[in-house]
Each structure stands twice: as C-alpha cells, then as structure tokens.
Design a protein that fits this description.
By secondary structure, the protein is α+β, with helices and mostly antiparallel strands. Helix content is 66%, strand content 15%. A four-stranded antiparallel β-sheet has the order 2-5-7-8, with no helix packed on it. Helix 4 runs antiparallel to helix 7, helix 7 packs antiparallel against helix 8 and helix 8 packs antiparallel against helix 9. It starts with a helix and ends with a helix.
Length: 434
Amino acid sequence: MRAMRSCRWTAALFVVTASAAAAQDAVRLDLNACLEQARAAAPRLEELRAAEAEAVASADEAAARRLPSLGLGATYRYASETMDAEISLAPSLPSRTLSFGDGHVADVNLALSLPLYTGGELSRTAAAANAGSRAATLRSSAAAQDVVLAVRRTFYAALGRESQLAAAGLAVARLQRHADEVSGAVSVGAATVEMRLRAVTRLREAEQRQSRAQAALDSAAVALGRLVGRPGAAVLPAGELATPLLDDDDTAAAAGERPDVAALQEERARQDHLAAAARGRLLPRIAAELAAHHGRPGVDQLTNDWMSYATAGVSLDWPLWDGGARRQRAAQAEARSRQAEARSRDLQEAVAAAQATASRDLALAREELARASERVDLARNIGELVGARYERADASESEYLDALDDVTAAEFELSLVRTRQRLAEATLLWTLGR
C-alpha cells in the first residue's frame, strides 16, 4: 500500500516535470483563444471575405446601371470638302454662292441617358447581384463554422493525446519505481535476476508507449498551431478533457438555418433572376437621352460660329433574331438553379445524417464514461491489493506487473472515451449551426 502511494507521488512529479518541459517549447492556449486566432488567420476565411467584398461591389454596380448616367463628351472633325450651293437671282442680278461651314466641326456636350424600359433585364440582374452578395456572406459564415469545427476537434484531440501521455507517464513512473525496488532486492538476495528482468522489460514497454504518446501529442500540437495561424509551431491546449462542451439539454436543441444551406438557396435565387434577365433581353429596350451642346457650326451651318443648343431623343433597340443565344443563356441559368437545389438537398441530408451519428456517438460515449471511470477505480484498487500481497510475497512478479498494466490500460481507455465524447460534441454543435 505504501509502495503504491509512493509510486503515485513519483508519477505525479514526473508528469509535472514533463509538462513543464513541454511548455517551454510550445505555446499553450485555451479553446476561446484558439478560436479567435483561427478566425483571424484562416486563409479560407480571408479568401471568402474578399469574395464577399467583390459580391457587394457587383451588387452596387448592378444597382447603378438602373440609374441615369451623365457623360461629358467632346469631338473635333475636319473635312477637306464642304457643301456649297449656288443661288440664281434675277437676270440682272449676280448669282450667290452659299457655303455650309469651312470643314472644321467641333462639339462639346453634356448628355443624360436614362433607360426607360429593358424588359426587366436590369432589375433582374440587380436582384441576382443582391442574391449573390447574400450568398457570399452566408458562405463566409459557413466557412467560419467549419473553422470552428476543425479547431474544436483538433483542440480536444490534442487534449486527449496529452491525457494519454500523462497516463503513459504514470505507468513509466510506477514501473520505474518497481524496477528500482526489485534491483535493490536483487542486490541483497531478496529477489531473483528474472524478476528484475521482467520489471525492466515492462518498463521499456511503458517507455515505448510514452514515446508514441509524446509523438502523437507533438503532431496534434503542430496541427493545432497551423489552424491558429502558427504553421510549423506547436500549440498545446489549455483546458480539461473532462469538461463537456454542451449539456444534456443542449443536445435536444433544434438546429437553426445553417448558413451553407441558406447560401445554396440564395444561389438558386440568383440563377433564377439571371434566367429571367436573359429572357428579358428578348423584349425591346427603350432609352431616352437629353444633351446640352456647345459647338461650331452647331445647327446654323451658314453662320458657322460657336453656339449652344440642346437635343432630346428616344431610342428603341429590339434584337429580333440571334440564333436562340438568349434562350440558351436563360436555359443555362435554369440548369444552374436546379444544380443549386440538388446540392442544397444533398447538404441537408448529409447534415441530418451527421447530426444523428454525432448524437448516437455522444450518447454511447456518455454511457461508456461511467463504466470507464469505474474501471479505473477498480483497477487502481486491485493494483493496491495486489501490491500489498506482493509486499507479503503472496503475489508473483507477473501478477503484480499485470495489475499495473491493467491500471494503465484503464486510464488509457478513460482518456479515449472522454476524447470521443468531446469530438462527438464538437460535431453535434456544428450540425446545430453553433
């Protein structure tokens, strides 16, 4: 009994020392800090924020095309020949020649153009651009949720690896203490060389497990570092693996509208508007123009001097035949709309399946947690009892080493169960849009 307590104190000291050494080489962040840094550093989110800005600019451009446009223009033209007209008077009077300009024509104008009717093309194009802007915003939100899921899963995977490393460290400390005691007993003739070899063999096996656990933790820490914007650096999680992400009441919460599903619905609406805009191009376009001119010779070519005047007009543009190009453009947009609808249904089904799977995994992990915790307590109690019998020489070396291995296996299994529980909670929160 006293030997087992001493082993625990030694193991605790070992774990603290190992954790302090690891902390010197890696930054330690809690979950909230990891999420905050990951949102700021994720290249995918930066890309989608730029795409969102582009979509907003496209929507503003489409809205501006529906407004009147004002333009300033200037022209100069020279013709080598001008029109002359000879006017014959009475027989006794000489004839007169009229010259229309001198070949120099200049004009400065300020024109206001206004689309009066476009068959709904401009309004539908603007509506499509607005839907595209909303879709871009929703895609950014969906990507942010994916980043949160990735960080949560990586964070708790790293915590699980750290818990397994701690369990491996405890096993090494227990076996090291026992190997030292057996070596001392061999020197005084109280134990055999075979007993010492068995103890050292188990110790080396435990040290190998510890090395593998350390390598797994290092890999998880590097993966977490990449997510939080520190590629190539190790970031260790700061938190408790036993602390749940959500309560029992949270698992029954209904999922809200997911941004990725809403983005596909907006994409479908965008394609519907684009199809309507393409069909609108089959109709005539009517535009009005009002312009103020200052030019030479203006409208009085005989005077041939600078003058100011105004013009107003209405134009009609009606493409009567284009080989079906506009109808095919509308058909393309309608096909893309059906594609978005199909992707939306597929995504909703995938999320529903993921939610059901995560809920079952979480329920199973919660059931296993109680049994795994009880198994750890039982294995430790058995280890103490076998240790007491071993001190009285009522238990063999193999029996005692097997008891120590059972404790280690139970601690490993408890860590795995808690890790599976945290990972299931992270997935479930993602399916709920949280």
